[in-house]
Amino acid sequence: MSLQRVEDRFAGVLIKALDTNRVLLIFRSDKCSEPHRWALVSGGINSDEDTLEGLKREVYEELGTNPDILKYDFIHIETEGDIRFFYYQGFTEHEFSPILNEEHDDFGWFDINELPSPLYSKLGDKIINICKTKNKK
Questions:
Q1: pLDDT tens sequence across 24-36
Q2: What is the per-residue pLDDT for 7?
Q3: Do 10 and 42 contact (CB within 8 A), yes or no?
Q4: Partners of 128 in beta bridges
Q5: Is 42 left (phi over 0), alpha (psi -120 to 50) or beta?
Q6: Which are the contacts of 49, defined by CB distance < 8 A and separation ≥ 6?
Q7: How far apart are CA 135 and CA 137, in angstroms?
Q8: Which residues sit opposite 32 in a β-bridge?
Q9: Which listed residue, 13, 33, 50, 132, has the most CB atoms within 10 A of its CB?
Q10: Does domain 8-125 have CATH number 3.90.79.10?
Q11: Is 47 strand, coil or helix?
Q12: What is the pLDDT of residues 28-74, one digit of tens each?
């Protein structure tokens, strides 16, 4: 019997409010890897989910809001070994106040030129790249 290789999938979304042009970041709690850092809404995709379906589940779990208030645009995939991370940009008409789960202690809406600190690993560059990629489409 041969073993199938398991691929780990993760997805994240940079949420942008169209009325203010600001992006939503969430502050990771002690219950997360790399705690006490600002991050995107993100998480693992279950094997029975497609990528966008799993991302919407994460939006609901982490923000306590209906994930369908966002319009999702796929940006790109980063691969490292068996891990694939799918980046999206999500658009909402207006800023909103999420109801955070235990994975996060705070949230904020930020101008991409005035991001908070400290950020999750390499997140500043990723946010700029996501915004540049979206502007080229």
A1: 999 999 998 889 9
A2: 60
A3: yes
A4: none
A5: beta
A6: 57
A7: 6
A8: none
A9: 13
A10: yes
A11: coil
A12: 999 988 899 999 999 999 989 999 999 999 999 999 999 999 999 99
Residue owning tokens 């940009």? 89
Residue 73: burial class (beta carbons within 10 Å; 0-12, 13-18, 19+): middle
Distance, in Å, from the CA atom of 66 to the CA atom of 31, rounded to the nearest integer, reads 23
As a whole number of angstroms, the distance between CA 128 and CA 64 comes to: 26
Q: How many CA atoms lie within 13 A of 104 on its CB side?
A: 24
Q: Give the count of beta carbons closer than 10 Å to the beta carbon of residue 121.
A: 12
- Please state, as a whole number, how many other Cβ atoms lie within 10 Å of the Cβ of residue 119: 18
Q: Which residues pair with 87 in a beta bridge?
A: 12, 76
Domain coordinates in residue numbering, the chain: 8-125
Distance CA 74, CA 47 (A): 19
Tell me the whole-structure pTM to 2 decimals.
Answer: 0.89
Are 39 and 28 in contact by the 8 Å Cβ rule? The answer is: yes
H or E, element range at 130 = helix 123-136
